[in-house]
Each structure stands twice: as structure tokens, then as C-alpha cells.
Design goal:
This protein is mainly alpha-helical. The chain is built from two helices and no strands. It has helices at 3-14, 20-51. The protein starts with a helix and ends with a helix.
């Protein structure tokens, strides 16, 4: 990682950046979307196995 990126990440982690709430919300949204995608994939595989 380059130094400016490290500084941005450090400021966000410490809550000193104005974009911290948006970045936190985006992180939560990505996590929820990822979990939903995994659950959907598992359910589709189970449905496919049952329907065979």
C-alpha cells in the first residue's frame, strides 16, 4: 500500500475522516450483500439437488 492510502485508512479507522460514516455504511452493506449472495447460492444448490 502506498503511504497516502495508508494515511486515509488510518484516518478512517480512527474516525477522523469526514467520510468515515459513509465508508462504514458501505462496509456493512457489502457484508450483508455478500452473506445474502452466499445464502442464495446455497439455497439454489439445495433446490437444484432436490429437483433432480
Amino acid at each position: 500500500m502506498t503511504e497516502p492510502i495508508k494515511e486515509e485508512v488510518r484516518k478512517t479507522a480512527e474516525g477522523r475522516d469526514a467520510a468515515t460514516p459513509a465508508r462504514a455504511l458501505f462496509g456493512v452493506a457489502l457484508t450483508v450483500w455478500g452473506i445474502a449472495a452466499v445464502i442464495t447460492a446455497v439455497l439454489l444448490v439445495v433446490w437444484w439437488l432436490i429437483a433432480r
